[in-house]
Each structure stands twice: as structure tokens, then as C-alpha cells.
Design goal:
The complex is a heterodimer of chains A (362) and B (433). Chain A is mainly alpha-helical and 362 residues long. Chain A contains 15 helices and no strands. Chain B has helices at residues 54-62, 84-90, 106-112, 126-138, 154-167, 184-199, 211-217, 235-238, 241-248, 275-278, 293-301, 316-324, 339-351, 396-402, 413-432; strands at 16-25, 28-38, 43-47, 69-74, 77-78, 91-94, 172-176, 203-207, 220-225, 228-233, 252-256, 263-267, 282-286, 305-312, 327-331, 354-357, 379-381. The chains are: A mainly alpha (362), B alpha/beta (433).
Chain lengths: 362, 433
Amino acid sequence: MSRVMALGAIRTNWRSSNISVVTRLAAASAVLGVLLIVAMLASLSMGPVSIPVTHVASIVLEPIGLDFATYSRTEELVIEQLRLPRIIVGALVGMALGVAGATMQGLFRNPMADPGIIGVSAGGALGAVIAIALGISGIFYQALSAFAFLGAMGAAFLVYGIATVGGRFNMATLLLAGVAVSAFFGAIVSAIMILVPSNEALREILFWLTGGLDSRSWEHVRLAAPPIIGASAIIFVMSRDLNLLMLGDDEAKSMGVRVGAIRPGLLAAASLITGVAVAVSGTIAFVGLVVPHMLRLVVGPDHRVLIPLSAVGGALFMVIADTIARTVVQPAEFRVGIITAFVGAPFFIFLLIRNKRHTTAF
Amino acid sequence: MDIMNETKADGYMPALEAQGLVYEVQAKRLLDRVSLKAERGSFVGLIGPNGAGKSTLLKSVSGLMRAQEGSVSLEGIDLTATSTKQIARTLAQVSQTPPYTYGFTGVELVMMGRYPHMGRFQVEGAEDRRIAADAMRQTETEEFADRLVETLSGGERQRVFVAGALAQQPHVLLLDEPTSNLDILHQLKVLDIVQGLVQQGMTAIAAIHDLSLAARYCSTLVLMSGGRVLAEGAAEDVLTPSNIEAAFGVRTVVYRDPFTNTLSVSLLDQATATESVASGTRVHLVCGGGTGSRLMYELQRAGMTVTAGPLGGGDTDRSAADILGIEYVPVTAFGPIEAEARSQHLELVELADIVVLCDVPFGPNNTAMLGALSSARRLVIIEGTPLMDRDFTGGSALHFFEGLSPVARPQGTDEAVACVLGLASERTGEGQE
């Protein structure tokens, strides 16, 4: 109880009218940023081969001339070629899912909205499954990611198209079309899984569907970083519009928001980053739902704070989840998608119960 | 709060003007060539039944909806040539039901009103904070600054939204039934705030359900029905029983409320079932001090022609007669009844099929009219209070009463109504035979 009250007090002081948005954002990002760096360093040092944190720091900082510890060539290779790209891809995916989740929840005025709400995740899964079933994934590098991305974007366009039939766009139709298209694509995925001839392909499909970050390389970083960082920045720039959109279309419009341009822009940006995330890591559950919701409880609903914090918070959550996935059953490995749901869902339920009597943040 | 109030040197320009607006949805005309003009510093009230087109009109003049025909100009500039942001700097809106606010605090919400004045990469500065604080002071919502808006009551929330609209620093404020979900205190509070703004030069246009409130606060009323404007102008010209019946289909009386000196609309009972039986009967009432008001109303509602005897200025029954449009004999309050009034009274008694003497006290000044009662065809005397107890003439009134032969002596007003209705139907029955 006292902890609940303490959280309430932090929140009240935190959101007092005397503290500007910039101060709040800077303070919270600093805290989460430090946590993210610590988590990343810890994650880098953990694994089948344990590497001291000083060595890790030295290896990471070597390119900028800070080379303060001696480390082996093997350690350098493990960090640079295996763990670092994987952790960076994980952070990017977490950032993407956090930002897309917060955006979709704001756009749909619904805390249950997740990044894949308009069919993006299901489309990505279908694309990837087709690539695996046809054996294309083995033919050339990145084919799986390319197919997943095309599937995700195809689904987004299809759902958006359905919702705008007749020239009158409707958010409720968008939501329902997203559910319908997701179910339809899910059915096709199930059918393919039954019809696929080899057990190996089936295993590969299952593997992909749970989402994971194994053997992610610098190639994936190069693919994912520009669209995720770019689109997240675009969403951040439109975050004040998103605040007004939450109140309602007429309210937003009457305060000067160009709803007709801003909303499709936000939808497109959120769908794009979700599609990219799905393409590099498969479908990862719960990050986009848990992270923004948790942050909203502390910092409030202002998207100018919430969007950037969801980016950092999502990255932090993914890095921790992936570290657990990599290390908990060594030498084997869990899929990170299992961990996010396994850790995220109970934590989410805990938050829901604890905040039941407290004012809802959404 | 400074509101731009300069008038162009080259002449006059209304704050907002709409001409010939037509809005059609699925072959149904929600607006049928509607024009509207709001002068600077005026408070225009849109009244009319549900579906009259008030909300559609408000949305059309604010740019939320685009009418298929017609034009809207905001401070002389065509709305179609204005960006959403530009409109939001000139015109703000408050909706009927404040939307759900998802955990925003009062000040966060009010600060959103600064949106149209800020660049994309700008954050609120000291000036914005000052304007928001001003808006909250004007709406008495400072205490809600750090409270979650969804925890406030409906009236408090509505005021926070008005503050948000004020933070836009608009010259024109549109309100779509801003008070329809509020209790009476908060209705007055919200409208008082708007009136205060209007006095400072703001132009306000509001759809208001309550006709008496509209008459009380607005400088101009526009009565709409079926997508058209039925009447517009001052409250006295718009709020007539016939206009109201044409728009709403209800029977009303409109009178000037003696306490607020504003027009007030009272709803009458809508049933007119007894009309066929009693219509055409003439009833004359001798009343005063409120003893006859209800009879006037009930008997007139039954379709009878009602007249009344001498009524002094300021008498409640006289006001009632004025409101209902009943003919009576006007006399000076508390003075003796002049010969002219007496003969007028006699004439009305003689014309009447039934004369009713209400529960009035008798003093030296009004016994004079009792003489006429002996000419009544059918006389009904209401004796709620025994005659003896309301004779202040020293017995002469009582003496006179003994000479009268009433057909009935009902004990109170309800009984009297039933009695008169019975007599009237007897009379019409006789007539038919």
C-alpha cells in the first residue's frame, strides 16, 4: 500500500504544472538511458563464455580510442561479431515495438492496442512462412526478412484499404478489418504448417513464429536501424498531435490538428517500424503492450514524453528479455518471444491488479 | 485576456457569417439554405428541436464539416481559404459532452489549447503558461490544474474544456449544447463565464436546449427546425408561442419573469381532449390575487372563451390573463372601480354562459361589481373560505350574497373546474336538442 502511495506521490510531483515537458523528458530519459547502457554491458558480458565487464567496455569503446584493458582476440570476436549486433538488433526491435505500441494505443484510444493491431504481425508471419515453405529462405541471405517485411506491409495496406472503402475512413472499421485480416492470415499460416512436407521446415516455421534474435548480425542492424530510428523520430515529432487526437477527431481538428494528414502519417510510421521489427526478429509478443502501459502509469499520457521513453524502455525490456533467453538454459537457448510473454504477461497482470483502485492511467 | 476588437476602417464586418448553407446526407437535407450572422461581441443562441440542424450548422461554420453549398466567412475571410491551424487561432469550440481525457491533468489539457499558436518543434514557454493560467482563472478551474480531468464532475470538466478553448485565444467561441448534461448551478456557471467573455468582446454562438436560459443569456436567438431557420432576432420576437409550437410542436406560454426580467417559457399540458365538449362556451371569472389563474388556464385549455372581471395592476391574476391572452377589465390597483369599468364588467357577465365567483375577499372597493352578478345566466360561487370570513365590508357583501342563486357551490378550484365543465357540456347538450 505504501508503495502504491509512493508511486502516486512521485507521479503527482512529477506531473506538477511547474515542471516543463523538457525537464521531465530529460530526467526520465537519463534514468532509462543509464539503465539501458548497464543492461547492455551486462548482457554483453554474459553468455556461454563469460567476459569481464571491463573487457566488454574496452572492446566496445576501442573504436573511439578508449582501450583500457587487455582482452583476448576470441573475446573481441564474441563481442563484436556475435553479442553486440544481436543486442543492438534486440534494442532496435524493442524500441520499434515500444514506439509503435504507444502510437497505436494513442491512435485507437485503447490500451489494448498492440503494434500489430492492423494486421502487420500476421502479415509478416505469413510472408515468412511462405518463404520457408517454398524453401526460398535457404536460397539467398535476407530472403526471410524481405518476405516478412513485404507480408507486413501488404497486410497494412490491405487493412487500411478496407477501412477507407467508400472514401470515408473509420477507426472502428480499421480495427475490425485488422482483426479479420489477422485471423485470415493466421488460418493460411496454419494450413501451410499442416501441408508443409518436411519436419525441418515445420520446425523452422514454429521457430520463426515465436520470435527470436539468434544469429542476428551487423547486416540486420544496417537493415533495421534507419527505418526504425527514422520512423520513430517522425512519430516523436507528431507526438503533440497524437495527444490531441486522443481526445477525439473533432476536438483535435478544432484545435488545429490536420487530422486527415497526421493520422495516416502516424499509422504508416507505426506500421512500418512494426513491419521492420517483425522482419528481423519474428513476432515478439507483449513488448508493445507492456512497456508503454507501464511508462504511462509513471509519466502520464503526454506522448511527447511517452514516445521517446517507450523507445528507450522498449529497448531496455528487450535487452533484458534476450539476456534471459540466452542464458537461462545454457547451453541451449530460449526464444526471446517466449520470455517477453512469460515475463511480460504476469508483470502486466500484477500492474493491473495493483492499479485497480488507483486512478487508471488510460 | 485581450480579445482583438478593432474594426476595419473601411467598415463593418461580422465576426462570422454563413450564407446559404446546404448540407445533405443520403438525400436528407440537414441544412437547407441556412444563413447565420454573428456580430462581434454578440451572443447568438441556436435553439430548436433535436435534429433541427443546430450541431450541423455549428460544425459547418467551424470547418469540421464542409457544407455542399454556401459559404462561410470568419472575420471576413472565406473558410475554405483558411488552414485548420489558422481557424483554430480565431475560433474555438466546446462540445456537448467533454471527451474522455485518458489521464491528462487539467493544466495539460488547457495547455493543449496552445497548439495552434505553436510551431512543430516548439514547447510551451512562459507566455503560453501565462495564457493557460489566465484561461483557468477566468473559468475558475485553477484548483483542477494538477488533477486528472476524468476525476472531475461533469460541470468542472466542462469548465476545464472551456479554459482549453480560451487558451486558443479565439475571437469566436462555438458551444454545442455546453450545458445539457449539467445541473442547474453548473449550467448557470458555464453560461455566466461565456457571458463574461462576450462582455469583453468575444463573439459566442451556442446551441442551447433550454429556451429560458437561451433567452436570458443570448443577445440574438436563431430558431431552427427541419434544417431551416424559422425565426431570428431578439428573444421577444423569436420566442413566441406560435414559433415554439411550429418548431417543437408543444404549447407554451411565454412571459417575462418578474424576478430576472427575462423571458421565460412555460410548458402547458399538451392534452386537449375535452375541447370538443366545452368549446364555444363563454365563462366569466370574478377573481383576483391568484384565485382565478388556474381556472383561466384549465378552462381555456378546455376550449372555452374565458373573460375576467376587474383586475388591478400588479395582480397575479392579471399577469396570468395577460400571458394567456384573456380579456379582462383593467382597473387601478386598490382603487374604487370606475363607472366605465363597471359597465364593461356587466357586459362581460351578460355575454357569459357561466359566471364564476372565485374565492376572493371583499372590501369596500370591489363590492360594486357584485351587483352585476345578479345578471348572470348561471352562477358558480367557489366557497373554499366561508363568505363570512372574507367579508371586510361590515356585512353588506354578505347581505348581497343572500340574494344570489348560484347553481353550484364548489369547495375549491379543482371542483370548480369539474363543475364548470359539467355545466358547459349540459349547455351544449341542450343546444343540440
